[in-house]
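Practice problem: predict the structure.
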Amino acid sequence: MRVLMPAQRPAHPAGARLWATPAIVGGAILVGSVIGGASPASGDAMGSVVDPLVITLVVALFVDVPLRRLPRTTGAWKVIGIAWSLNFLLAPLVAFLLTRVALPGHPAVQLGVMLYFLAPCTDWFLAFTRLSDGDTAVGATLLPINMVTQLLLFPVWITVLGGNAGIDAVGTVGTLLQWFVLPAAIAVVIRLGISLLPDGARARAAALPGRAVPWIVGAMVAGLFASHIALLLANLPVFVAVLGCAVVFFAVVFIAAEWASRLAALPYPRSALLAMTTAARNAPLMIGLTSAALPHQPLVTTAIVVGMLVEFPHLLAVRHLLLRRRRGQHAERPLRGATAWGHP
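Answer:
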Protein backbone atom coordinates (compact mmCIF):
# COMPACT_ATOMS: atom_id res chain seq x y z
CA MET A 1 0.00 0.00 0.00
CA ARG A 2 1.25 3.43 -0.84
CA VAL A 3 0.36 4.79 2.59
CA LEU A 4 2.85 2.40 4.17
CA MET A 5 5.73 3.51 1.99
CA PRO A 6 7.95 6.39 3.08
CA ALA A 7 6.93 9.79 1.85
CA GLN A 8 9.57 11.58 -0.19
CA ARG A 9 11.79 13.59 2.11
CA PRO A 10 15.01 15.55 2.00
CA ALA A 11 18.33 13.73 1.86
CA HIS A 12 19.18 14.71 5.44
CA PRO A 13 15.95 14.12 7.38
CA ALA A 14 17.30 14.47 10.89
CA GLY A 15 20.46 16.46 10.34
CA ALA A 16 18.82 19.85 10.67
CA ARG A 17 17.53 19.04 14.14
CA LEU A 18 20.67 17.38 15.53
CA TRP A 19 21.95 20.55 17.09
CA ALA A 20 18.56 22.11 17.84
CA THR A 21 17.16 19.33 20.02
CA PRO A 22 19.63 19.53 22.96
CA ALA A 23 19.40 23.33 22.98
CA ILE A 24 15.60 23.26 22.92
CA VAL A 25 15.36 20.66 25.69
CA GLY A 26 17.94 22.49 27.83
CA GLY A 27 16.11 25.77 27.34
CA ALA A 28 12.79 24.11 28.16
CA ILE A 29 14.17 22.76 31.44
CA LEU A 30 15.41 26.23 32.39
CA VAL A 31 12.23 28.07 31.37
CA GLY A 32 9.91 25.52 32.98
CA SER A 33 11.90 25.47 36.22
CA VAL A 34 11.96 29.27 36.50
CA ILE A 35 8.25 29.67 35.77
CA GLY A 36 7.25 26.83 38.10
CA GLY A 37 9.43 28.18 40.89
CA ALA A 38 8.27 31.79 40.50
CA SER A 39 4.56 31.04 40.01
CA PRO A 40 3.19 27.59 40.92
CA ALA A 41 -0.17 28.53 39.39
CA SER A 42 1.48 29.29 36.06
CA GLY A 43 3.42 26.04 36.35
CA ASP A 44 0.19 24.09 36.83
CA ALA A 45 -1.30 25.82 33.79
CA MET A 46 1.71 24.81 31.69
CA GLY A 47 1.41 21.26 32.95
CA SER A 48 -2.21 21.08 31.79
CA VAL A 49 -1.17 21.18 28.11
CA VAL A 50 1.03 18.08 28.35
CA ASP A 51 -1.75 15.63 27.42
CA PRO A 52 -2.60 17.15 24.02
CA LEU A 53 1.12 17.53 23.35
CA VAL A 54 1.57 13.80 23.97
CA ILE A 55 -0.88 12.93 21.21
CA THR A 56 0.73 15.48 18.89
CA LEU A 57 4.21 14.10 19.58
CA VAL A 58 3.29 10.45 19.03
CA VAL A 59 1.48 11.33 15.79
CA ALA A 60 4.51 13.28 14.54
CA LEU A 61 6.86 10.41 15.39
CA PHE A 62 4.68 7.83 13.66
CA VAL A 63 4.40 9.98 10.53
CA ASP A 64 8.14 10.68 10.48
CA VAL A 65 9.36 7.06 10.66
CA PRO A 66 10.13 5.81 7.12
CA LEU A 67 9.10 2.27 6.23
CA ARG A 68 11.54 0.71 3.79
CA ARG A 69 12.29 -2.67 2.37
CA LEU A 70 15.36 -4.56 3.50
CA PRO A 71 18.26 -3.66 1.21
CA ARG A 72 19.41 -6.61 -0.87
CA THR A 73 23.03 -6.50 0.18
CA THR A 74 25.20 -9.28 1.55
CA GLY A 75 25.15 -9.48 5.33
CA ALA A 76 22.31 -7.01 5.89
CA TRP A 77 20.36 -9.45 8.01
CA LYS A 78 23.48 -10.22 10.05
CA VAL A 79 24.07 -6.63 11.14
CA ILE A 80 20.34 -6.10 11.77
CA GLY A 81 20.29 -9.21 13.96
CA ILE A 82 23.34 -8.06 15.91
CA ALA A 83 21.88 -4.58 16.39
CA TRP A 84 18.55 -5.99 17.54
CA SER A 85 20.27 -8.33 20.00
CA LEU A 86 22.36 -5.54 21.49
CA ASN A 87 19.41 -3.16 21.77
CA PHE A 88 16.76 -5.56 23.06
CA LEU A 89 18.70 -8.32 24.82
CA LEU A 90 21.96 -6.85 26.14
CA ALA A 91 20.68 -3.33 26.88
CA PRO A 92 17.90 -4.52 29.23
CA LEU A 93 20.40 -6.60 31.21
CA VAL A 94 22.86 -3.70 31.54
CA ALA A 95 20.04 -1.29 32.42
CA PHE A 96 18.60 -3.60 35.07
CA LEU A 97 21.94 -4.11 36.80
CA LEU A 98 22.83 -0.41 36.67
CA THR A 99 19.54 0.84 38.09
CA ARG A 100 19.54 -1.71 40.89
CA VAL A 101 23.07 -0.80 41.93
CA ALA A 102 22.96 2.99 41.47
CA LEU A 103 19.32 3.82 42.30
CA PRO A 104 18.19 1.60 45.18
CA GLY A 105 15.06 2.76 46.95
CA HIS A 106 13.85 4.91 44.04
CA PRO A 107 11.55 2.63 42.00
CA ALA A 108 9.92 5.41 39.96
CA VAL A 109 13.29 6.79 38.86
CA GLN A 110 14.54 3.25 38.20
CA LEU A 111 11.57 2.67 35.91
CA GLY A 112 12.18 5.90 34.00
CA VAL A 113 15.86 5.13 33.47
CA MET A 114 15.03 1.59 32.38
CA LEU A 115 12.44 2.77 29.85
CA TYR A 116 14.92 5.27 28.43
CA PHE A 117 17.71 2.71 28.09
CA LEU A 118 15.42 0.09 26.55
CA ALA A 119 14.25 2.16 23.57
CA PRO A 120 16.74 2.53 20.68
CA CYS A 121 16.47 5.64 18.55
CA THR A 122 14.23 5.77 15.49
CA ASP A 123 15.30 9.06 13.96
CA TRP A 124 18.47 11.05 14.54
CA PHE A 125 20.83 8.09 14.98
CA LEU A 126 20.61 7.74 11.20
CA ALA A 127 21.91 11.28 10.74
CA PHE A 128 24.85 10.53 13.05
CA THR A 129 25.44 7.32 11.10
CA ARG A 130 25.67 9.38 7.92
CA LEU A 131 28.00 11.89 9.59
CA SER A 132 30.23 8.96 10.58
CA ASP A 133 30.30 7.46 7.05
CA GLY A 134 28.17 4.55 8.25
CA ASP A 135 25.74 2.31 6.35
CA THR A 136 22.55 4.38 6.18
CA ALA A 137 20.77 1.95 3.82
CA VAL A 138 20.67 -0.80 6.43
CA GLY A 139 20.22 1.86 9.12
CA ALA A 140 17.02 3.08 7.48
CA THR A 141 15.68 -0.47 7.64
CA LEU A 142 16.37 -0.56 11.37
CA LEU A 143 14.06 2.40 12.03
CA PRO A 144 10.70 0.62 11.70
CA ILE A 145 12.13 -2.55 13.26
CA ASN A 146 13.24 -0.60 16.33
CA MET A 147 9.95 1.28 16.49
CA VAL A 148 7.71 -1.79 16.28
CA THR A 149 9.80 -3.77 18.77
CA GLN A 150 9.85 -1.08 21.43
CA LEU A 151 6.14 -0.35 21.03
CA LEU A 152 5.37 -4.04 21.56
CA LEU A 153 7.73 -4.24 24.54
CA PHE A 154 6.63 -1.02 26.27
CA PRO A 155 3.52 -2.57 27.89
CA VAL A 156 5.62 -5.57 28.87
CA TRP A 157 8.23 -3.41 30.60
CA ILE A 158 5.52 -1.41 32.37
CA THR A 159 3.90 -4.64 33.59
CA VAL A 160 7.16 -6.29 34.67
CA LEU A 161 8.92 -3.24 36.12
CA GLY A 162 6.05 -1.03 37.26
CA GLY A 163 4.97 -3.01 40.30
CA ASN A 164 7.79 -1.74 42.51
CA ALA A 165 6.82 1.85 41.66
CA GLY A 166 3.22 1.32 42.80
CA ILE A 167 1.84 1.35 39.25
CA ASP A 168 -1.39 -0.39 38.23
CA ALA A 169 0.01 -2.28 35.26
CA VAL A 170 -3.35 -3.50 33.91
CA GLY A 171 -4.94 -0.06 33.98
CA THR A 172 -1.80 1.51 32.57
CA VAL A 173 -1.67 -0.85 29.59
CA GLY A 174 -5.33 -0.11 28.83
CA THR A 175 -4.65 3.62 28.94
CA LEU A 176 -1.57 3.17 26.77
CA LEU A 177 -3.56 1.31 24.12
CA GLN A 178 -6.05 4.18 23.96
CA TRP A 179 -3.26 6.72 23.57
CA PHE A 180 -1.57 4.52 20.98
CA VAL A 181 -4.55 3.65 18.76
CA LEU A 182 -5.70 7.25 18.27
CA PRO A 183 -2.28 8.66 17.25
CA ALA A 184 -1.63 5.63 15.04
CA ALA A 185 -4.94 6.14 13.23
CA ILE A 186 -4.26 9.85 12.78
CA ALA A 187 -0.74 9.10 11.52
CA VAL A 188 -2.06 6.64 8.91
CA VAL A 189 -4.50 9.26 7.62
CA ILE A 190 -1.73 11.88 7.46
CA ARG A 191 0.65 9.52 5.65
CA LEU A 192 -2.11 8.73 3.15
CA GLY A 193 -2.72 12.43 2.59
CA ILE A 194 1.00 13.10 2.10
CA SER A 195 1.31 10.24 -0.39
CA LEU A 196 -1.38 11.82 -2.56
CA LEU A 197 0.42 15.16 -2.87
CA PRO A 198 2.55 16.17 -5.88
CA ASP A 199 6.25 15.38 -5.51
CA GLY A 200 7.41 18.83 -4.43
CA ALA A 201 4.61 19.34 -1.93
CA ARG A 202 5.02 15.77 -0.70
CA ALA A 203 8.67 16.34 0.20
CA ARG A 204 7.86 19.55 2.09
CA ALA A 205 4.93 17.99 3.93
CA ALA A 206 6.93 14.87 4.84
CA ALA A 207 9.63 17.01 6.45
CA LEU A 208 7.26 18.95 8.73
CA PRO A 209 6.57 16.29 11.42
CA GLY A 210 10.28 15.62 11.99
CA ARG A 211 11.04 19.33 12.23
CA ALA A 212 8.24 19.76 14.77
CA VAL A 213 9.37 16.95 17.09
CA PRO A 214 12.10 18.90 19.00
CA TRP A 215 9.70 21.78 19.65
CA ILE A 216 6.92 19.48 20.83
CA VAL A 217 9.34 17.69 23.15
CA GLY A 218 10.58 21.05 24.41
CA ALA A 219 7.03 22.19 25.20
CA MET A 220 6.33 18.94 27.05
CA VAL A 221 9.55 19.18 29.06
CA ALA A 222 8.81 22.81 29.97
CA GLY A 223 5.33 21.83 31.17
CA LEU A 224 6.69 18.88 33.12
CA PHE A 225 9.34 20.91 34.95
CA ALA A 226 7.04 23.88 35.52
CA SER A 227 4.31 21.80 37.15
CA HIS A 228 6.58 19.56 39.25
CA ILE A 229 9.63 21.70 40.02
CA ALA A 230 9.32 21.31 43.82
CA LEU A 231 9.24 17.52 43.57
CA LEU A 232 12.15 17.49 41.14
CA LEU A 233 14.34 19.72 43.32
CA ALA A 234 13.62 17.49 46.31
CA ASN A 235 15.03 14.56 44.33
CA LEU A 236 17.99 16.40 42.78
CA PRO A 237 20.69 14.05 44.18
CA VAL A 238 18.86 11.11 42.64
CA PHE A 239 18.95 12.72 39.20
CA VAL A 240 22.68 13.29 39.53
CA ALA A 241 22.93 9.52 39.98
CA VAL A 242 20.81 9.13 36.82
CA LEU A 243 23.45 11.08 34.88
CA GLY A 244 26.09 8.69 36.18
CA CYS A 245 23.97 5.70 35.13
CA ALA A 246 23.65 7.12 31.62
CA VAL A 247 27.41 7.62 31.28
CA VAL A 248 28.15 4.05 32.38
CA PHE A 249 25.37 2.56 30.22
CA PHE A 250 26.55 4.28 27.05
CA ALA A 251 30.16 3.28 27.72
CA VAL A 252 29.23 -0.37 28.23
CA VAL A 253 27.03 -0.66 25.13
CA PHE A 254 29.65 1.11 22.99
CA ILE A 255 32.30 -1.39 24.08
CA ALA A 256 29.85 -4.24 23.42
CA ALA A 257 29.08 -2.90 19.93
CA GLU A 258 32.79 -2.61 19.13
CA TRP A 259 33.41 -6.14 20.35
CA ALA A 260 30.47 -7.50 18.34
CA SER A 261 31.66 -5.69 15.21
CA ARG A 262 35.12 -7.23 15.45
CA LEU A 263 33.77 -10.68 16.25
CA ALA A 264 31.45 -10.53 13.21
CA ALA A 265 34.19 -8.98 11.02
CA LEU A 266 31.88 -6.14 10.00
CA PRO A 267 33.23 -3.58 7.52
CA TYR A 268 33.62 -0.03 8.81
CA PRO A 269 30.27 1.34 7.51
CA ARG A 270 28.31 -1.35 9.33
CA SER A 271 30.49 -1.14 12.41
CA ALA A 272 29.70 2.59 12.54
CA LEU A 273 26.00 1.84 12.13
CA LEU A 274 26.12 -0.62 15.02
CA ALA A 275 27.89 1.89 17.25
CA MET A 276 25.32 4.59 16.50
CA THR A 277 22.16 2.52 16.85
CA THR A 278 23.29 1.38 20.29
CA ALA A 279 24.43 4.88 21.28
CA ALA A 280 21.16 6.72 20.61
CA ARG A 281 17.92 6.25 22.57
CA ASN A 282 14.35 7.13 21.65
CA ALA A 283 13.71 9.70 24.39
CA PRO A 284 10.93 11.60 22.54
CA LEU A 285 8.74 8.53 22.11
CA MET A 286 9.39 7.30 25.65
CA ILE A 287 8.57 10.75 27.05
CA GLY A 288 5.31 10.75 25.10
CA LEU A 289 4.26 7.21 25.99
CA THR A 290 5.27 7.55 29.63
CA SER A 291 3.44 10.86 30.02
CA ALA A 292 0.32 9.21 28.60
CA ALA A 293 0.56 5.94 30.48
CA LEU A 294 1.80 7.35 33.81
CA PRO A 295 0.48 10.93 34.07
CA HIS A 296 0.81 10.95 37.87
CA GLN A 297 4.40 9.69 37.92
CA PRO A 298 6.50 12.76 36.98
CA LEU A 299 9.69 11.22 38.35
CA VAL A 300 9.50 8.48 35.72
CA THR A 301 9.29 10.94 32.84
CA THR A 302 11.88 13.29 34.33
CA ALA A 303 14.39 10.44 34.60
CA ILE A 304 14.06 9.98 30.83
CA VAL A 305 14.69 13.70 30.23
CA VAL A 306 17.77 13.67 32.47
CA GLY A 307 19.22 10.64 30.70
CA MET A 308 18.70 12.41 27.39
CA LEU A 309 21.11 15.17 28.50
CA VAL A 310 24.04 12.73 28.32
CA GLU A 311 23.07 11.25 24.97
CA PHE A 312 24.01 14.07 22.61
CA PRO A 313 27.57 14.58 23.96
CA HIS A 314 28.01 10.81 23.84
CA LEU A 315 26.93 10.68 20.18
CA LEU A 316 29.44 13.40 19.33
CA ALA A 317 32.18 11.47 21.15
CA VAL A 318 31.30 8.23 19.34
CA ARG A 319 31.35 10.02 15.98
CA HIS A 320 34.80 11.42 16.79
CA LEU A 321 36.15 7.98 17.70
CA LEU A 322 34.67 6.37 14.60
CA LEU A 323 36.03 8.98 12.21
CA ARG A 324 39.45 8.79 13.83
CA ARG A 325 39.45 5.04 13.25
CA ARG A 326 38.29 5.65 9.67
CA ARG A 327 41.19 8.03 9.04
CA GLY A 328 43.57 5.51 10.55
CA GLN A 329 42.33 2.80 8.20
CA HIS A 330 42.80 5.07 5.18
CA ALA A 331 46.31 5.97 6.34
CA GLU A 332 47.28 2.30 6.70
CA ARG A 333 46.29 1.33 3.15
CA PRO A 334 49.00 3.31 1.28
CA LEU A 335 51.57 2.11 3.81
CA ARG A 336 50.61 -1.50 3.25
CA GLY A 337 50.71 -0.99 -0.51
CA ALA A 338 54.21 0.49 -0.32
CA THR A 339 55.38 -2.38 1.88
CA ALA A 340 54.00 -4.95 -0.54
CA TRP A 341 55.66 -3.14 -3.48
CA GLY A 342 59.05 -3.10 -1.78
CA HIS A 343 58.87 -6.73 -0.65
CA PRO A 344 57.31 -8.86 -3.37
